[in-house]
Amino acid sequence: MVLGTLLVALLQWSGSQVDRIARERDQATAKTVVAQSVEQMSHGLEVGASSRALLGQLSGGDPDLEWLDVFAERWFTDYAGLAETYLLSPEGAPLYAIRGNARVAAHSYIGIEQYAAPLAEQMRAATIRNRTQNDGSSTRTPVVADLRFLRGRPAILSVKPVLAGQASDGERVGAVPMVVGVAYLDGSFFERLAQHYGLADMRYQSGPRTGPGETSAPLRDRSSQVMGYLVWRAFAPGQQVVSALGPVSMLLVLVVASVVFFLASRLTRRTRDLAESRSEAHYQALHDPLTGLANRMMFEAWLDEALERCEQGPEGAGHLALLCIDLDRFKLINDTLGHPAGDELIRQVAARLRAEVRDYDMVARMAGDEFAIAICEPEDRAAVEGICARIIEQLARPFDLFGARAYIGGSIGVALAPDDSRERTELTRRVDIALTTAKAEGRGRYLFFTPAMDAKIRAREELVQALRHAVHEDPAQLHVHYQPMYCARTGAIRAVEALLRWEHPERGFIGPGTFIPQAEESGLIEALGNFVLRRALEDARAWPDVRVSVNISPSQMRCTDFVTRVRDLLEESGVAPQRLELEMTETALMASSRDVRRTIAALRELEVACALDDFGTGYSSLSHIRDMAVDRIKVDKSFVAAISTPQGAGLVEAIVSVARVHGMAVTAEGVETPMQLAFLRDLGCHELQGFLLSHPVCAENLSALLAESRAGQGPALQWAGSDGWAI
C-alpha cells in the first residue's frame, strides 16, 4: 500500500510538473505571439507604406478616395490585418480612414489621436534622423508600435512614415505622410492564436485572477506597464496523462496490493503454521506422546539445571530426590490384553504418579514401562519414603483396562542429591543400581542407593570382564572336571558329567554358582557351553566305554545351528554319538518348547541322548515327562536330601515311578549319605552321583579312577547287613 501510494503521488507530481512546464511554455508563447503580432503589423505597414503611389496621393493634398479604398483594403486591411487604418498628411492631418473594409470619416481619427500623436512625433523624429544620415540608398524607416487601450479594448497601435527616404531638394525633412494602424486584441486575434498555438479560449481581462484550469500572462506596453492580462484555458498534458493513467494505475495498485496481500496472508499463515509446527515439534521432542509427560531429553535437561542449583546450595542431603520406577508384569498385560490395553495402562500409571507429587516436581516417562520422578527440596528422607510408599500402593491397586481388571506392581530405586552425587550421569547410574537391587530382592518395593550396592555391581562387572577375558583371550584359566555317575547295581562308573571350573590367576578357584549366573546374564554362557562341549568330547576319546554328559544352556538350544555344531564336534573328536548325553533343565525346555522339541528330535536322529536335569525344580509338573522325548531324568539333589522325611521320600518315589512307566532311565544327584544311597538303589534308580561316591576330578584323575574301577579296586556298593547299604 505504501508503494502504491508513492506511485500515485509520483504520478500526480509528475503530472503537475508537466502542467507547470506547459503553463510556462504557453505564457512564453503568448508573449512571443503578441510581440510577433506587433512585428507582423509593422511589416504589413512597411509594405504598404513603401508605395510611391501612396506617397503621391498623400502628398498632393487632394487624394483619390476610391483609389485609397482599394489600396488600403488590399495592403492594410487584408495584408497587414489592421482593424483600423488612418492616413495622415505630411502636416499630421487625417486624410483618410478605413475600419475593416469600409471607409469612415477621416475625423474619426480623433478617437485615437491622443495615443497616436506621441508615436507620430517619435516617428517624425526618427525619420528626420534617418533622412539626415541616410545616403539615399534605402527608403526603409523604423516602425513605432505600442500597446494601447483603445475604444475600451486592448490594441496594437503602430505608426509608419510613407516612403520616408532622404529628403529631396525643396522638401522639408520632417514633413512626411504617416500611416497609423490599429489591430485590436479581440476575438479574431484570439481565435488565430488558438488555431496556430493551441491557446484555447483566450480572452482579455483587467485582473490576473483565473478560473479552474486557466492560466494568464500580463499584457505590457513599451514602458512595461501592465495593461491587463491575457487569459486562456491552460493546456494540461500532465493532468490528461494522470486522468488517463490514474484509473489504470489505481487498478494496477489494487491488483498488486491484492496479490501482495494474498501472498503476505499466505506467508503469514505459513509463518504461523511453521511457528505452530516448530512449537509442536519442540513439544513432541520434549514430551512423551502417549502420556504427555516429559521424555528422557527434557527430564535430563531439567535434572541438569536442578543439580546445578543443588550444587550451589549448602552441603547435605534433601535438595533433590531422584526416583526411578519400573512396572512389574507389564509385558504380561501386553501379551494377554494387547497393546491398546498396555497403552491405557501406561496412561493411568502416569496419572497416578502425577497425583502423588507436587506441581513443580518433575515426572517423566523414560522408556517403555520405566518412569522417573525428581522431587525438588523434599523436607527430609522420611518425606521421600512416604512418596515412594504411596506410589507402591497406587501401583498395586487394580487398573480398569477396557472392562478388564489388571494388577501390576512397581519397583523403585531412589538416589539423593547431593549426598549420592551432584552429577546427573552418576546420579542416574546409582538410582538404576538401586532399582535393579529392588527388583532382584523381590519387586514391589523401594530401595535407597547405598555404597554397598555400587560395590556389588562393580564386583559383578569386574567378574564379568574377567570371565570375558578368560573365554576369549586366556582360555587356560578354564578347566573341565568330571564327576562320575555310578551304576546303582554294579558300582561301576557308567558315565561322567562335565563340570566347568574357573581358576582366576589372582582370585584362585571361583565356584560355578558365582560365575555361571553372571555368564547367563552377560551372554557368555553360550561360549562357555561350546567350550565345555568341545573339551569334553576331546577328553572322552581316552574313555571309550564311558558316556559323557554335558550341560547345555537354553541359549545354545535356541541356536539354529546347534545340531550342526554338535555333529561337527562329534566328527572332529571321533566320539560315537551314542556316548554323548546332553543335559538341559526343565525350565529351559518349557520356555521354548516347540523349538526345543525340534532340536531334541534332530539330536535323537544323531543318536545323541538327552537328559532332563534338575527335574522338579522348574515347572514341577510330572506331566512334562510325557511331553518331552528325553532318555533320562536326573532327580535334583534337593529332593535327594529330603528323602529322610516321608514327604521327600514319597516325592522321589513318585518321580522314579513315572520315569519307569515312560521307559526313562533315572539318575539321582547329590548322594551324600549311605542311607540315601541305599534308599535310591532299593527304589530302582539306575545311576547314582554325589560326593559320597566321588567329587568332580580333572581328566587325568578320572582316567585313574576308571582304571581302578576296571580293576575292581574302586568303590564297590555292597550290602552292609541289617544296617543297610555301605561302600
Automatic annotation (TrEMBL):
InterPro entries: Biofilm_reg_signaling, CHASE4, EAL_dom, EAL_sf, GGDEF_dom, Nucleotide_cyclase, Rev_trsase/Diguanyl_cyclase
Pfam family, one: EAL
Keywords: Membrane, Transmembrane, Transmembrane helix
The UniProt record lists the keyword Repressor: no
Domain GGDEF: 318-451
SMART domains in the cross-refs: EAL (SM00052), GGDEF (SM00267)
Cited PROSITE patterns: EAL (PS50883), GGDEF (PS50887)
Domain of life: Bacteria
NCBIfam families hit by this protein: GGDEF
Annotated protein name in UniProt: EAL domain-containing protein
